[in-house]
Design goal:
- The protein is about 85% helix and about 0% strand.
- The protein is mostly helical.
- The chain has one domain (about 1-80).
- α2 runs antiparallel to α3.
- It is elongated and about 60 Å long.
């Protein structure tokens, strides 16, 4: 629920930081994908590249959860949270 409130706060404050970080992460994800597909990775670097890719996979999932909601639970609670926020 705190993520939803943070999103509301970011919308009200017109904060660009989450958007910039999301774009940078998505760009990094595709840059590493492109690098893996177009270059031969040395065996000594393979583990580091795969670990970076795994970390970016997780970050991309978190970005989608942040922007599009993590579950149906938030959809049912959303009107209540908005009412509470508007009362303050």
């Amino acid at each position: 629920m705190s993520t939803f409130l943070e999103r509301l706060m970011a919308i009200r404050m017109r904060d660009w930081t989450p958007k910039i970080l999301a774009v940078m992460t998505i760009f990094g994800y595709f840059a590493i994908q492109w690098y893996i597909l177009t270059n031969i990775i040395e065996p000594s670097m393979r583990e580091m590249v795969m670990r970076s890719l795994g970390t970016l996979d997780t970050l991309v999932g978190l970005i989608f959860s942040y922007y599009y909601g993590a579950s149906d639970f938030m959809q049912t609670k959303q009107p209540t949270v908005i009412e509470k926020t508007n009362e303050e």
